[in-house]
Amino acid sequence: MNCCKKPKETKKEKGFLKGILYGLAPHTFCIAFIIFTVLGVTTATTLLKPLLLNPYFFYILIGLSFGFATISAIIYLQRNGILSFQGIKRKWKYLSILYGTTIFVNLLFFMVIFPYLANLNRVQSAALIEATPLSSITLKVDIPCPGHAPLITTELKKIDGAEKVKFSFPNLFDVKYNFLKTSKGEILSLKVFDTYKATVINETTSQADNPQPLTNSEQPSSNVGSYQCCGGVAGGCGCGR
């Protein structure tokens, strides 16, 4: 026996690696869209955008990922001559690793990776934002999964005046905007919201955007002809009395 020969990969390792592969499969287009967006490759993002705008596309890919895992499991059992219920019971550890890893990778993308990538905002400096009176709205967007969050944030950040966009799991988007440059109506008129409906669940306007009415003490005096307009001399100064 050659002592330098590398040991063969165990069946558990094969199941784990295949599970990662099938877990990654449905997120391929979302990952590519994010990468091209960060790199500024507009042509590629334009080609991928219609796929993400299909609300059923992601579910199809998820189904394919588990379909591939199932086909792989069937081939594995067939090669070992145990394609039966008894064979499944014998190889439950391998199958649980295969499907468990597939599910884990999907949850990792849903709960951690996509929410993090959706919040990679290119915004102005904090000092400039603080010096500008900003309004904000919180949108609840009917996206099928957090994998579509980078698409929504990308579209929101294209608006001139949208200073910061923050995504919160599972489908909330907090938008801080300069009311001098844009408005709530312009934000809600984005074409992406024709596919994924957006609902305003919270709204805060800056004081400059929503000026407060003057108090009684600040109201201009309508008592024309009083002694105040006559240099402190009451009556007989041509002020109306």
Polypeptide structure, described:
- It is built from ten helices and four strands; from the N terminus they run αααααααβαββααβ.
- With 241 residues, the protein is of the alpha+beta class.
- The protein has two domains: 11-118, no CATH class; 126-204, 2-Layer Sandwich (Alpha-Beta Plaits).
- The protein has a four-stranded antiparallel beta sheet with strand order 2-3-1-4.
- Strand 2 and strand 3 (172-178) form a beta hairpin.
- It is elongated and about 70 Å long.
- Mean pLDDT is 77; it is low at 123-128 and 217-237.
Q: Secondary structure elements and their pairing?
A:
Layout: H1 11-24, H2 28-39, H3 42-52, H4 57-79, H5 85-90, H6 92-118, H7 126-131, E1 134-141, H8 149-157, E2 162-168, E3 172-178, H9 184-188, H10 192-195, E4 198-204
Antiparallel strand pairs: 1-3, 1-4, 2-3
Helix pairs in contact: 1-4, 1-6, 2-3, 4-6, 6-8
